[in-house]
Amino acid sequence: MPLTTTISSVPLRRASKALVPLFRQQRRSNSGAVEQPPPPEGHLPTVANSRLLRTKRDSALHTPGLSWADEDPSAPSRAIVGGRETRKMNTYQAIRDAMSIALAKDDNAVVFGEDVAFGGVFRDSLKSLASHDPARSLFVTINHLAHYIGKERVFNTPLTEQGIAGFGIGMALMGHTAIAEIQFADYIFPAFDQLVNEAAKIRYRSGGTYNVGGLTIRTPTMSVLELTHGHKIVIPRSPIQAKGLLLSSIRDPNPVIFMEPKILYRSAVEQVPIDDYELPLGKAEILVPGEDLTLLTWGTPVYHCETALHMLNSPAPELESVIPKSLQSAKIELIDLRSILPWDVHTIVESVNRTGRLVIVHEAGLTAGVGAEISAEVQKRCFLKLDAPVKRVAGWDLPNGLQYEKFHIPDAIRVLDAVVETLSY
Amino acid sequence: MQLLPVLDNVLYNVQRQGKISFYMTAHGEEATIVGSAAALANDDEVMGQYRELGVLLWRGFSLDNVMAQCLGNEEDTSGKGRQMPVHFGSPEHHFHTISSPLATQIPQAAGVGRCIGRRQVVSLSIRIAMDDAYAKNRPRANPLSMPDFHAGMMLASTIPSPTLFIARNNGFAISTPSSEQYNGDGIASRGPGYGIDTVRVDGNDVLAVMSAVREARRRCLEQGRAVLVEAMSYRVGHHSTSDDSFAYRPRAEVEDRKRIDNPIVRFRLFLEARGWWDADAEAELKASQKAAVMKAFKRSETLKLWELRHLFTDVYGGEEPWNLKEQRQELTGLLKKYGQIYEPWRKELAKFKDAGEDLMGKQ
Fold it and tell me: Could you name the domain of life of the organism this protein comes from (chain B) (predicted)?
């Protein structure tokens, strides 16, 4: 994987010298990736070279919480993971891989949505896939799937979001596994009536006689989120997470909205186990342990947070004035929430009780965002342990303005500032 | 076809007495509903709007089942007392649980039809709907004008799915007459636009409905494609028990419809002309049906509600999420504290099976 970075601002460019030793050390100790000369922009971690990504087979196979779905669940868990293969995949390829496994193993599974039959608008180019043999590998494009599995099971729908959701509900009502795609999360709102008034409530209102547990709605996202009760909401941060969480979502007995951070479709690359495995829903994951502050996020901002932590621990000279020396060695605990509903209150509360400080980062708007829910619950449960107010770093309460994006999203500098402010409260 | 109006009369009246919270009759549309039910196989999947109780009765849904749902008592298998009256459902009778939001079932029916096609089961889904808007805050909404109608027609046609859509065009969506619902030629004229075989039928002629639906069903199954039937009738009753329809239409018009074009009278005259029915048989049937309905109601009235813990069950399948568990425990604590000293709760708890003990004993 080439070491590239998108950081290009002048002050940060000058930061490269300070960060090189730290970066080298981390590459060696954490991923063992091949050493390369530093690029001129420096080595601040971004998605492309994040050490949170598992770029080696061995670390991929040791992903926490991973359970192989092809093993006998009653047998003792297999500690030896040798014999399992991985393959380099980006997020979209991992999602496709999960869907192909679901289709291959479940005759009642169908994949549908707008433009899915030709591979989906986020498909990888066919050229890069030419080397893969679809007959030998499950790693194929959706249009390969349509070809090999049949248009009966992988098909286009007309452009109608309420129709897609309603159609999926109908199939799930009959016990089928319906994997529907809404092309962008921004376009999920026409389907809200179907999702909120129908899918989420069918089990409850029918007294448990009907359910749509077989329904999974995939949708490329960030910044769009709404809550209701009766379905689950999941957001992965990387290819390994995407595949494992999607397979769990497809098999969960409840309707699941699976929100895929579209910026990570190609930018996040990992070695992904090619076998059938699952990751648990409703469970957060501690990515970096620490004891001074809990930094909680999900989806794309995981990487902004990672960058912010590097900036905190090894500030560029220009930033040293705003980061007190005493805070530069702070140990921050970074947590990926992964499941938005139901969310893992136990992991978060346990962490905040240890650290006494919490910063929540999300791209969606501040008011009535998920951060509000979490901070209210944390202040209730951790009142005596909190050393500072819970801080939320979120999108402003605004529509997304095209040219203003850099000042709208909760990027690394905003996260850094929130961490410093909370640590020095 | 005769039982439906008897049941409607009794339940309409008990609603007026405050014994159930809500009701919707099917007066004037018995031929459309029962005629289409008779033309289907009993295991054809049905997704309805709310005025299709006749389909369930045709399929043997018992009077006790009907009463249990309307009273929301411990025998309510449609929804454990969670939904408003007339929101029936029964997998055993292949009748999907009714929900209030209009037209949501139309694209769902396309999905159901698609599954059945894949499984090669000789069966199909049916959507009986198209009249009244239910939600008062959307006075101009009717299923035809809802985008879900468009979505459902389009999906069933393009994917394609053997789905039979049956529209009850009864002239009104609550107070809104059809002249304010559409300017085209009713619902049937839309079918060809979606590439769907379509027929319009006299919804007050039970034999015409049967024959149209039977043919529509045959085409559905043979071609594996959607078919649309529009049944023309007139909503003789009020929209619901929350509606006084004489505020927006003359009483004389309704009385004329009842007298001149009554689906039940029309079928009775047919039977009498064949020598299959007479006034004595009619009187006897009416009396026995009324007695059976009253008996079922009186029995149902004495039953308790489901256990209170079902307020919290069936939200999710699988493991109960922590938030629901904690909220259930919070209510339990409040019940222990106030259940016997706060009058509204004490009275209410007495209606439930176990009087809330199922929750309080579970701490």
Answer: Eukaryota
A223: nearest Cα among A127, A112, A301: A301
Measure B252 CA to nearest chain A CA, in Å: 39
Interchain pair B150, A160: CB under 8 A: yes
Mutate to test the interface with B, among A167, A217, A346 (most CBs of B within 10 A): A167
Label residues B125-156 b or e (16+ Cβ within 10 Å = b): bbbbbbbbbbeeeeeebbbbbbbbbbbbbbbb
Write out pLDDT tens, residues B313-324: 999 999 999 999
Q: Counting one residue from A and one from B, how many pairs have CB atoms under 8 Å apart?
A: 157
Q: A254 and B317 in contact by Cβ < 8 A?
A: yes
pLDDT at residue A117, as a whole number: 74
Flag if B106 and A230 touch (Cβ within 8 Å).
Answer: no
Does B87 contact A205 at a Cβ distance shorter than 8 Å? yes
- Contact between chains at B76 and A169 (C-beta distance less than 8 A): no
Of B96, B107, B113, B173, whose CA–CA distance to B141 is shortest? Answer: B173
- Alpha carbon distance B266, A359 (integer Å): 73
Q: Which DSSP symbol is given to A222?
A: S
Cα Rg of chain B (Å, integer)? 22
Which pLDDT belongs to residue A78? 54
A216 beta partners: A179, A256
Q: Which residues from B are below 8 Å from A342, CB to CB?
A: 321-323
Pick from A152, A206, A282: CB nearest B79: A206
Q: How many Cβ atoms sit within 10 Å of the Cβ of residue B268?
A: 19
The string of pLDDT tens digits covering residues B173-227 is 888 888 878 888 888 999 999 999 999 999 999 999 999 999 999 998 888 889 9
pLDDT at A331 over 60: yes
Distance separating alpha carbons of residues A374 and A368, to the nearest angstrom: 11
Q: Tokens 């006084």: give the residue.
A: B244
CA trace torsion B275, B276, B282, B287 (10° rounding)? 150
Does A409 have pLDDT greater than 60?
yes
Mean pLDDT of chain A: 83
Other residues' Cβ atoms within 10 Å of the Cβ of residue A337: 24
- Read off the pLDDT of residues B126-176 as tens digits, 9 standing for 90 and up: 544 444 333 232 333 345 567 788 999 999 899 888 889 999 888 888 888
Place of tokens 């930061």: A15
Q: Is A173 on the interface with B (CB under 8 A)?
A: yes
d(CA B33, CA B52): 6
In chain A, residues with a C-beta closer than 8 Å to the C-beta of B152 are 163, 166
Give start and end residues of each alpha helix (H) in B261-355: 263-273, 279-301, 322-338, 343-349
Q: What is the H or E stretch that residue A381 is in?
A: helix A370-381
- b/e string for A273-288 if b means 16 or more Cβ within 10 A? bbbbbbbbbbbbbebe
Could you identify the residue written with the tokens 């971690």?
A45
- Enumerate the residues of chain B whose CB falls inside 8 A of the CB of residue A346: 322
Find, among A148, A156, A95, the residue nearest to A123 by Cα: A95
* Distance, CA of A279 to CA of A168 (rounded, Å): 24
Q: What share of chain A is helix, strand, coil (3-state, %, to 5)?
A: 40, 15, 45
* Amino acid type, B9: N
Closest-CA residue of A relative to B97 is A206
Contact yes or no for A230 and B316 at CB 8 A: yes
Record the pTM: 0.84
